[in-house]
Specification:
Layout: H1 2-34, H2 43-69, H3 76-105, H4 116-172, H5 175-191, H6 193-213, E1 219-220, H7 221-239, E2 243-248, E3 257-258, H8 262-272, E4 282-289, E5 292-298, H9 311-322, E6 329-332, E7 335-341
Parallel strand pairs: 2-4
Antiparallel strand pairs: 1-3, 4-5, 5-7, 6-7
Helix pairs in contact: 1-2, 2-3, 3-4, 4-9, 5-6, 6-7, 7-8
Length: 344
Amino acid sequence: MTYRFLQSSEQIMRKHILTLILGAGAGLLLSLYLSVAPAIFHFSSFIAMAIGILLGFIILKINGMINRIIPWKLNIILRILTSIIIYSAISFSIIKILLYLARLKWNTSNFYNLEAEQLNLKLIIILTFGFFLYVIIEFLIYSYQSFSTGELHKIKAERKQIDLQLNALKTQLSPHFLFNSLNTASSLIHHQSDQAEHYIRRLASLYKYTINSYHVTLISLQEEISFAKDYFHLLKTRFGDQIKMDLSVADTHLHSKVPPLAIQMLIENAVKHNVINSDHSLSINISTAQGWINISNNKTKTPSQQTSFKIGLKNIQERYKLLGNRAIRIKNEKIFIVSIPIIE
């Protein structure tokens, strides 16, 4: 917190120093432009430098107000024109007032030996041109900062997306899941060797898909459904008739996109949070409707010693937020339903 405060103070200090230097420089250039016989160390030049510094800090304050009223992203042309007009009008008025007061102080009829019309014309030209350059440079700096910030957010979002998908991968490669899978395969080998071979092939296919998809942001619904079928086959082998899955996915949606492992994680979530045995069967339904994929299951008995951290649901929620700030829907009643958006 202290570091951020110091860093902010340093930035403000640098901005004020830069305003001081630029204001003095602009005032000196304005004095030389208005003078009939230019002289850098003429008394009027020092007055002009002081006016330039004063105007610099006034413009800095007004710029903050304009940023709030007409931000760059709202309308670039309007912002440029408004800024030039406001800066020029205020600067022109302040300069005229201060020059008038200076003439009264030092009893001179005209500080720069110019007619009023000539002075006004020169002031309008130099202020309009100067503030045009200032606003264009300000816009270029804003554009660069916006691009840099956007790129930084994009890189962070991509990194977070990969981290979330790696977490999903870790879930699939967890020792608990591997132990259950190998234990089932071992049991099948002794009694049903053909089914054991089929089971191991499905398990290998599952791991291949998992490893190949962890770095992919989106995958077709058809591929994800195929993967979910392989995963369900492992569950079916393990639980038998106590678990069922119904698929009702429209063919028109098969080429749509979803985050990889999303459906599988929701199937796993249903299995993890419900008791499945001869007295409690689990039915999972996967369907599509109005741009959503609905994964629902009946609720049996909550397993003992099962603590729910909702990691799977949080993982899917975070990934959808990164994909366009879209939220998933969760309905927890007699039937537990999770709806995830289909990405066209």
